[in-house]
Amino acid sequence: MRRRAVAEADPSIFAQMKQVEVRDVADAAALSDVLDGHPQPFVVRGLVKDWPLVRAGLESPRAARQYLLERSRPVPFTVTIGQPGRDGRLFYDDDFGMNFREARGKLGDIFRGFDDNEGRADAPAIYLTSVDMKLFFDGLVEDNPSPVGDRDPLQSIWIGTSTRVAAHNDFPRNLACCAVGRRRFTIFPPEQFENLYIGPLENTPAGRAVSMVDFHEPDFETYPRFAEALDHAQVVELEPGDAVYIPSMWWHHVEGLSAFNVLVNYWWRDTPAFLGQPQEALNHAILAIRDLPAEERALWRKLFDHYVFENPPGVAEHIPEQARGVLAPLTAKTAGQLRAFLLRTLNR
Question: Counting beta carbons within 10 angstroms of the beta carbon of residue 255, is it exposed (0 to 12), middle (13 to 18) or buried (19 or more)?
Fold first, then answer.
């Protein structure tokens, strides 16, 4: 395979990839227009370069940590601690447990761990993942304003040493802003999931199923279709102040390239928050449908097409409008009723 030969000749597969498109935006309003009309990933250089957090990080990693510490609330933070000698890769161990552990502590104590391990070749990976900025900090959101306008996103901060997070996807749309250090994102279209060799659905490093391929040492004998995935890959390295947009369901492999890295990301969905999570429906379908006899699965496939994937206008026209229930467009009320019904049936 062409990609296999390239990888064997050049240990850096990233040098062979297409670069993520760079877009110029004048302001937040212009960014909003691009987000609404652009189905592909893109990069905006310097989008948040004026953030105080970015300026503190350019001064030094310790200045960035001090900036965050001064705004942190006196509550326990959860921190991930990896094993030394794993090149920062947070993944499974040989028995499909995790090669890291979690601990809780005050942010000042956690940051002392960063200080103590700075410059050590055998230092463990240290990572605070998806910390809710509104819940754990005072003034951080206000001082470093969201660039995504009135979308009401979940605003999270990620703080760590050099780390590697396996390729995964997210249902919400995502704008990821590099605040401190450098990050590399390797991004794949949603349909490449078969070529990424996705691991277990219920036993995951961080809640989302991940690619089993080690991007630094891809094993093309075990994962031969990964060569095809590489033909569709896009890559970008972010400097402080840069941002990358990742559309819903696009796969992304994320690396913190500096000894200390901070990322701020914004997740939002285009559909109402009262709707359910598609992953939960997939899990339930595995429980209820996947192992049925083939002829029964075929019948359920037709029902799913009829009520879910195609859902033509005539599905409920024969039912009086006031009696259509969840066959009508969902509202917050009917979605809540359906959720309660599911909980009752699942707990029987």
Answer: buried
> In the structure encoding, which two tokens stand for residue 102, read together?
């979690």
- Domains with residue ranges and CATH for the chain: 2-268 (2.60.120.10), 278-346 (no CATH)
**274 torsion bin: left (phi>0), alpha (psi -120 to 50), beta (else):** alpha
Sheet holding 77-82, edge to edge: 42-44, 243-246, 173-180, 261-268, 154-160, 126-132, 77-82, 100-105
Q: Is the pLDDT of residue 68 over 80?
A: yes
Neighbours of 243 (CB within 10 A): 26
Residues paired with 19 in a beta bridge: 235
pLDDT of residue 6: 37
- What lies within 8 Å, CB to CB, of 209 at 6+ separation is 168, 198, 199, 200, 201
Torsion of CA 191, 271, 264, 143, to 10 degrees: 160
pLDDT at 36: 86
Angle (nearest 5°) at CA 226 between 220 and 228: 120
User: Using one digit for the tens of pLDDT, what is the confidence trace for 86-97?
Assistant: 789 999 999 999
Distinct helix (H) and strand (E) counts, the chain:
11, 14
Closest C-alpha to 92, from 8, 191, 189, 197: 197
Helix, strand, coil % in the chain, rounded to nearest 5 = 35, 25, 40
Contacts of 143 (CB under 8 A, 6+ apart): 51, 52, 53, 71
Residue 274: closest CA among 342, 207, 324, 339 = 339
23 CB-contact burial (10 Å; exposed 0-12 / middle 13-18 / buried 19+): middle
Tokens of 322: 């006031």
